[in-house]
């Protein structure tokens, strides 16, 4: 991956993380700016890594679907493919609504399906299915980790002895 693609993926991840972290920080009055900044950077890196894994996961699923695995080129993020993802992450900031957010990610996935179909030799619909399954699986895994982190880091109410 080129440095431009890595930077764009991190920016998309940072925007996605900001939509999740800033509302949480607003509800917790005791959070310092340093801890919010640290959470944003870490969340941006984690979300960016998940975005980077999306084509790789989709390609792996496509190879599992085909009986003879293709010997062609690998699907990788290019600035042209990642730009709509950054647009989706920034414009469809999760605070604006899950439906709009979902629609833009479906658009990005549809854009990824064409290069996947070309790289693997699958039809467009099969490639789109692989992209969708990969995206939903990665999204579900990230959401499970988010909920676990929130549950672990939530302040616990102290029980009174008397």
Structure described in brief:
The protein is built from five helices and no strands.
User: For this entry, what is the oligomeric state of its chains?
Assistant: single chain
What composes the largest sheet? Answer: none
What letter string, H or E per element, gives the SSE order?
A: HHHHH
The gross shape turns out to be elongated
Alpha carbon gyration radius: 18 Å
**Structural class computed from helices and strand pairing:** mainly alpha
Average pLDDT, rounded to a whole number, is 77
**Approximately how much helix is present in the residues?**
over 70%
DSSP, total strands: 0
Strand content: under 5%
Helix segment tally:
5
* Separation, N- and C-terminal Cα atoms: 61 Å
Q: What ranges have pLDDT less than 50 throughout 5 or more consecutive residues?
A: none
Could you describe the 3D structure shown?
The chain is 77% helix and 0% strand. α1 packs parallel to α3. The chain has helices at 3-27, 33-65, 79-91, 98-120, 124-153. The longest helix has 33 residues, at 33-65. It is mostly helical.
Keywords:
162 residues, mainly alpha, 5 helices
List the helices and strands and how they pair.
Elements (H helix, E strand, L loop, with lengths): L2 H25 L5 H33 L13 H13 L6 H23 L3 H30 L9
Helix pairs in contact: 1-2, 1-3, 2-5, 3-4, 4-5
